[in-house]
Amino acid sequence: MPDLASMGGLNTSLLIGTQALEAAQGALTATSNNIANSNTPGYTREIPQFAESEQSQSGNEIIGGGVSLTGLQSVRDELLNLQIQSQTSLQSSVDTQSSSLQQIQTYFSSTGTDIASALSAFSSDLTQLSASPSSSAVQQEVLSSGQNLANAFNNTASGLTSAQSSADTQVTQTVSQINSLTTQIAQLNGQISQLTADGQSGGTVQDQRDELVQQLSQLTGISVMQGSDGETITTGNGTPLVMGDSSYSLQTTTGSDGMQHVLDSNGNDITSSIQGGQLGGAIQIRDQVIPGYLAQLNTLASQFAASFNAAQAEGFDSNGNAGQNFFSVPATGAAAGMSVAISDPSLIAISSDGSAGSNGNVANLSASLTSALPSGQTVSQAYANLVDQVGTAASDASTQSTAIGQNLLQLTNQQSSVSGVSIDEETTNLIRFQTAYEAAARIVSTIQQLNTDTINMIS
Amino acid sequence: MRVNQNLVPDVLADLQQTQTALNTALQEVSTGKSVNVPSDNPAASASMVQNTIETKDVDQYTQNVSSVLSTVQSADSALSSVVSSLTTAVTLGTEGANGTTNASDQQEVATQVQGILTSVVSEANTSLQGSYLFGGTASTEVPYTADSTSASGYTYNGNNGVNSVTVGDDLTVQSNIPGSQIFSNSSNDVLGSLSSLVTALQGGNSADIETATNAVNSALSYVSQQRVIYANAETQLNSQENYLQQETVSLTSQATSLVGIDTATAATDLAQAQTANSAALAAAAKVLPTTLLDYLVPPQS
Questions:
Q1: Less Cβ crowding at N or C end of chain B, within 10 Å?
Q2: B30 located within any domain
Q3: b/e map A136-148, b = 16+ CB within 10 Å
Q4: What is the value of ipTM here, to two decimals?
Q5: In a domain, B261, yes or no
Q6: Which of A1-10, A199-208, B275-284 has the highest mean pLDDT?
Q7: How far is CA B117 from CA A241, A270, B90, B193, B216, in A?
Q8: pLDDT higher than threshold 50 for residue A446
């Protein structure tokens, strides 16, 4: 005869029923939390973990111990997160450059006030001077189209400089955003290790941290390592940003070039090694791309001005004097500072023999537009080359952005398929857990009925 | 494998893509240009720099051609009256050298030749829009003014300069012949020979008159030769004008192929982009709101 004391009595069933009620209730809570957070950025769905309670054995009979809810598990794929972070850095770097290049390239578009239009007007006015060398109206036209050409150089240079200074402002802003994010991440790291030490799951805190790390990867390229005391985050080249619960803030300072330089927490200049993210993109545009264009534009402006002034010197103005400089360019920032040096149209060196009606030097003036400058290219070829470079850079950046965007979409979808909340699935679970809860409740009421029946037997 | 339930990013990406295509198509149709910023087609934008400059230059060359043409034609017509004046002078000189002409008739002829000299000088002083055609490059000064100390009675104020006007990338046309070359050339001096004829007629010596007439005759054939320069310039200018017209056409067609649109293609693209965009919107509207909840019957109370 089996041992009565150890046999599962009604109370055991009641206990199992109650546990089932609790487990179903916990599962319902998890489900409703999932549904509630279905649109929360960075939320990772949680699935309830059920486990059989310890069974008991009485004689040959093994009696189940019911169910217990051992916890909620966040479903995340760390590898995917890392991939998403690196692609995000890449994309926001390219996007930053792309938007700056979009702004820059409008100065190189055919708008009527661009350098190409100004060059063409200047060239055709010079040709007109060949037919009407003594017409003061035509001379005035040449002078004003020369001024327009100088203005076009000024505008293009200032367009480039203003794009450069907005990238510079972006550097300062981004650095302060990075510092605010790393501080928060360090705090969350501390909370997570505390929770882990207490044996709790850090699910939601971890979600928050992942979301912040994701945001950080938009600002700059980072590398993330899981350590014993939480995540260690460094910039791409190893400058620490977060280690455990401490954060290391970056600083900015004005460098000798007048631009904002980024310093690590020890004061070392790490500007040139920063890559990826808004910060990397802004630095790339500010320190590499725009200075490259500006240098070419300055060379073009100074070489063209020198060549035109040399042509002026070969001839005589309408007063019979040797031609003086037409353009004046400063030694540095030639394009930005280019101006027309004369204000009197009769000072244009049209004549080759000193008489007012001669057009002999116009050919020399025109030739400075069509013959090769010291750079080996004519002024229009050099400018066309610059247009091609700017256009190609802008078009490459936007193509790249689209490609990375596709890649990122793919990764996000993949992450979403792992971690995202599916309303359909949660609804199904809701029905499942509802049924389980109802059934468990039925067990409790059945046991209650049986208990009543048993008590009634006694009385 | 678990299926991604969140369609929003995909739907947004699709909508954005079709919207971008629609914007591009719309911009192409409304601006008539397929390249609006350099990134639309960097190589074409670079080529357009040269095209813009050349187009403007060709316009100006065409204007220069017509401006030089009118100068050359005026100069040629002035020389044409000089030629007929000189022909008359030669006839008068021959008449004066004839032994039958009496002294008073010779004086009469001398006066007529003096008149011819004056009219030739006035032709030599022809100006067009304020610039003198035969003063060399000193086109602002009257080329010939009366000067009693000079043998011909006139002095040349111009120079020997010649202007060549640009009418093509590598083509210039001589637009003037200086007076010193046509009217007061030392070997064929038009003004000098006419002046000598007047003096000879006044002197009444038949042999002198004949010599002077011969000198005028040789000046006449010299001027006729010089007219060839203008005639050649005219021919050159006319053929250049035709060339520039073709050049304008080819530059325009180059510009169209670089940055222009084919209207039919652009309109078709626009229609396609519109359809794609509407389809994407319709699909989004159908797909997004659907969940299992739409199909569950609410619990009966």
A1: C
A2: no
A3: eebbebbbebbbb
A4: 0.83
A5: no
A6: B275-284
A7: 101, 90, 12, 10, 11
A8: yes
Contact between chains at A413 and B9 (C-beta distance less than 8 A): yes
Residue B123: inside a domain: yes
Contacts (Cβ under 8 Å, ≥6 apart) of B139: A134, A355, A356, A357, B131, B132, B133, B158, B176
Phi, psi (deg, nearest 5) at residue A41:
-60, 135
Chain B contact present for A388, CB below 8 A: yes
**Residue A350 · residue A333 · CB < 8 Å:** no
pLDDT value at position B268?
93
Q: How far apart are CA A340 and CA B213, in angstroms?
A: 59
What is the extent of the structural domain holding B135?
50-255
> Is A127 strand, coil or helix?
helix
Backbone torsions φ then ψ of A260, nearest 5 degrees: -75, 125
- Each domain of chain A, given as residue ranges in start order, spans 10-75+420-458, 83-296+304-309+378-407
A29 phi, psi to nearest 5 deg: -65, -45
Residue type, A258: G
The residue in chain B having the minimum alpha-carbon distance to the alpha carbon of residue A423 is B291
Rounded to 5°, the CA angle B46-B48-B51 comes to 130
Distances, alpha carbon B238 to alpha carbons A29, A39, A363, B165, B241, in Å: 94, 77, 22, 14, 5
Q: Is residue B12 part of a domain?
A: no
What pTM did the predictor assign?
A: 0.83
For residue B167, the chain A residue with the least C-alpha distance is A127
Number of domain units in chain B: 1
pLDDT at A207 exceeding the cut of 90: no
* pLDDT surpasses 60 at A433: yes
CATH number (domain holding residue B244): 1.20.1330.10
Chain B partners within 8 Å of A422 (Cβ): 2-3, 5
Whole-angstrom distance, CA of residue A68 vs CA of residue A50: 6
Alpha helices by DSSP H, listed for A7-111, are: 10-36, 78-105
Chain A: give the shortest CA distance to residue B42, in Å: 5
